[in-house]
Amino acid sequence: MDEWFNIVVRQLILYTLPLLVSLTMVVLAEARLSGIKSPHPFFAISWKGSWIPLLVAIFLHRGVIVALPRPLAKGIRPAVVRLLAHGALCLVGFILYTWSLSHQPPTGLPPLHHWWAKVLMFFNLCMVVLHLLPLPLLLMGELAEKLPWLRGLPKGESLPWIVLALLVATPLIDISLGSMLIYPIYESLSSMAVQLSRG
What we know:
Keywords: Membrane, Transmembrane, Transmembrane helix. By secondary structure, the chain is mainly α. It contains seven helices and no strands. It is globular and about 55 Å long.
């Protein structure tokens, strides 16, 4: 029990800041490109879809960590904006991780800048690949809603996070998206960052 608790606390420390930055930046990008104003400053993280899937993944020690951004609008274009924003943040995380490998913290301080950069890269990579799921708010889900034979997919703002939380509670995402796409790409990015940091 103590070991499980220690892992959960460590994961929460590592993922909270990158998640806050990522989801906030995604909503800001969506607001900027769509012309829709965010109702309040904490709109991006003020719904259950941002936290329940994340907490389920961390508490159950899942490899793939995900959290839904709160959408300002539905449709294919906003979903594409969210996908591209996560892709850009993954690239930023990669650059910061590469930089952090050659800039160690002062003696006695934990290398949080190193781990936060790595988590920023990994979390946003997970979110990019998550868009392959046919859930509303995600790109494939928004595309599927346009197809007449797939209009029976779950709709609404609450149902997607419930379905995603249930998926995260099982090992399905780890086995499918994780093993086929996320982990190999993440390993390649990490290796590339190490090589670039060595000059």
